[in-house]
Amino acid sequence: MTEAKMKNIAVIGFGNIGTGVVELLYRKGIAGLKLVRVVDTDLEKKRPITLPADYLSRDWREAVSDPGIDVVVELIGGIEPARTIQIAALQKGKDVVTANKKLLAREGQNIFQMAANLDRRLGFRAAFVGCHSLIHEFRQAGTAAKKFRRIHAILNGTSNYILSTMTREGKTFEEALKEAQAKGFAEADPSDDIDGLDTANKVRILLALIANSYQRAGDFPVEGIRDISAQDIRYAGELGYSVKLVGVIEPKDGVFYVSVRPALVPQISLLGSIDGAYNGTETEDEYGVVSGLVAPGAGTYPTADAVIKDLLDIAEGRPMPMPDSARPLALGSGEKEERRYYLRFSVVDQAGVLARICNIFWNYNISIAAVIQKEATSKDFVPVVITTHLAREGDMMTAITEVDKLPVVKARTKVIRILA
Amino acid sequence: MTEAKMKNIAVIGFGNIGTGVVELLYRKGIAGLKLVRVVDTDLEKKRPITLPADYLSRDWREAVSDPGIDVVVELIGGIEPARTIQIAALQKGKDVVTANKKLLAREGQNIFQMAANLDRRLGFRAAFVGCHSLIHEFRQAGTAAKKFRRIHAILNGTSNYILSTMTREGKTFEEALKEAQAKGFAEADPSDDIDGLDTANKVRILLALIANSYQRAGDFPVEGIRDISAQDIRYAGELGYSVKLVGVIEPKDGVFYVSVRPALVPQISLLGSIDGAYNGTETEDEYGVVSGLVAPGAGTYPTADAVIKDLLDIAEGRPMPMPDSARPLALGSGEKEERRYYLRFSVVDQAGVLARICNIFWNYNISIAAVIQKEATSKDFVPVVITTHLAREGDMMTAITEVDKLPVVKARTKVIRILA
Questions:
Q1: What secondary structure letter does DSSP report for B202?
Q2: Residue of chain A with shortest Cα separation from B313
Q3: In a shared domain, residues B287 and B150
Q4: What would the pLDDT profile of A285-331 be if each residue is shown by its tens digit?
Q5: A146, A258, B40, B63: which could join A220 in a potential S-S bond, CB 3.0 to 4.6 Å?
């Protein structure tokens, strides 16, 4: 590696991930990459690694305006000042590496476009620790080199940890969330993770890559896992399924069908076997070839490793996978999507109830694959679980609305899609 | 892409894979790669793609000695004339791309060494269709950039297809093999696949990559799946395991512990969920990070795609993952390896038999995790299945030899390792 190619790096944000990156760049040392500045507002905090004082700074402006710095690694997260830092760095002619999926999901249109227009590189593998080894392939899809039929992905370790605990230990959502918080797998305010927002951010960036468009796509359905009950997980298990929070991208005839929702996947399948805080991705290409990947979705070392991979791409002049065009990006409505469904009805325990539900389904061409009805343990109502064959989403939703109006139905029917 | 970088390609072997490669290079067209010659001894055969006559030749010597050809793609397989073709191409200053794992496993020491000495590139992703996206990482392990604790891999689609069919449909090995042959998932002579030889060839090449050594490693244990019975698969299922043919590479203190054997893996795990003709790889790195990959292990399109990836690496001047040193490569003996075991004893149905077995285990510090003994259905003997906690291989083998000498034991005890 010639000295000419050596890249000078500033790391902004000296938290867990920043410490991991500093560890690799400064202590281990990586050819072609030279750490020259580390910025954090808090330099007093005790950290596992001590840097000489001349590396340290409290002011990101100083790093971003230093002409000796080639690449700015933004690891503070959130919207501001991360947004201002990234934009300033690009405008000063620097390349940027980041783990900030929230910012790229919200402001990607501006930031990707600016990077493309200024011919700068923007690395964000670290925003996709669980599937970063696929992002080159995802980007190729945007140039027609590779077409996908579907991408189904578990992208949030916290949710998967909670669902795994509920499944393994029969815990309720609240108990499993508390355990995840106690063990450091969930934050004090876990809503980004458990309400599907973090998964949705990642799906939005993946979509930009696959479509090769930094145009902001419209909204798509996002549901989290707060309403997944222990009994749904138990019934799913009896039927051979695991409940997972799945990001779905399915391109069809130039339109993208996108959602983030809890789903039933077969227990013995790639996504079904993903346990704890892991992430997993299942893709099917245009030839029907299905491939899968399982990897940790977070953690200091895997995230820092992803940052280093981006830095090496920059140092060695490899093309970066980033959306660099403004192609229009259309999302399809789910109305006509065909899925299988898991339905849990709460009905009064009397003759003819199942028949009435089945009659409504019959009217909408929905056929039933399996039924579980156990003997009643409550006087108020009894759960009836039905799985269906493929049905159109529009038909299903209309049918459920009708079912829920029946006087024998005592609570809103629980609807979970089956991906299989 | 400038004309100067354009690579002229000769494809030798116009069978299924060759047809796939020609389809991509000639019909689809790929920037930087120009198909100029296709060689096969049989040019009369009907093929899904027709090439102009001036592309075709029956004589590989003509292609290999043509100074206008930059890369020779050898897709005829087997030892000769593939070996002579590859060596002649390297000596003529050409790069080589191949899917030939048998040749590289047997002659890798000469061929890799020759490629390294002549500064030529040798691409063999297509020999690892099921995990080719990992071979860069495997090669990095040989330069200490990345260390693995273990690689457990299902690398043979035929065996996995047969084991999956036995599991799903309760078939015997013979029935499942016949079905695989009828459906084209197994060859008329299936021994390379079902006796573990194909997996062993792939493991040997992976080992060369991970150790970054083209020195031929010594022999390691290789067992196939012929002796896996329907009842073992059934018992494994009752205990929550799938039976898989697994290649194992575990580096420890500079020594590699390597084997190819049937193994029990948890049903709900990456390897346990791999169904049909798929391949899967589970790796654990030095930080304890476990990652997994599932992909088709064969097929015209996935294999041709892997060939194209190698050709693009060559055209675009990227470093190729190949072993390029003669570092000594030591294999460890399994004697002291600690594993869990599945054991099926065939014993006479009388009092005290289980106690006698347990006493022998006790003497060797082997402790029992689970027992299944069902009521006898035969007068001759009854199966007793035991799983153990971790035990040293040496102890286990000695204990089994003692058990098998007991007069109440009526057949050799079936031993399958548990990887979990």
A1: H
A2: A318
A3: yes
A4: 888 888 999 998 888 888 998 999 999 999 988 888 899 999 999 99
A5: A258
Q: Are both A164 and A285 inside the same structural domain?
A: yes
Count of A–B CB contacts within 8 Å?
60
Instruction: Give chain A's mean pLDDT.
Output: 92
Q: What are the tens digits of pLDDT across the range A199-215?
A: 999 999 999 999 999 99
Is A174 within the bounds of a domain?
yes
ipTM (interface predicted TM): 0.74
Closest chain B residue to A313, measured at CA: B318
d(CA A227, CA A414): 9
Q: What is d(CA A99, CA A339) in angstroms, rounded to the nearest whole number?
A: 34
List B94, B101, B202, B414, catalytic entry:
B202
Please choose, from the candidates B319, B306, B313, the residue with its C-alpha nearest in 3D space to the C-alpha of residue B119.
B319
> Looking at the predicted structure, is the pLDDT value of residue B380 above 90?
no
State the nearest Cα–Cα gap between A118 and chain B, in angstroms.
Answer: 22
Mutate to test the interface with A, among B163, B270, B281, B309 (most CBs of A within 10 A): B270
Determine which helix (DSSP H) or strand (DSSP E) holds B203, and give its type and residue range: helix B197-210
User: Residue A308: closest CA among chain B residues belongs to which residue?
Assistant: B145
Provide the H-helix boundaries in B316-416. Answer: 353-363, 393-405
Nearest-angstrom CA–CA distance, B286 and B345? 38
Question: How confident is the model over B75-88, as a mean pLDDT?
Answer: 97
Number of domains in chain B: 3
User: Which whole number is the average pLDDT over B336-340?
Assistant: 91
Instruction: Give chain B positions within 8 Å (CB) of A133.
Output: 133
- Same domain for B138 and B117? no
B276 with B154, same domain: the answer is yes
CATH number of the domain encompassing residue B93: 3.40.50.720
For residues B349 and B395, state if they share a domain: yes
Active site residue B202: yes
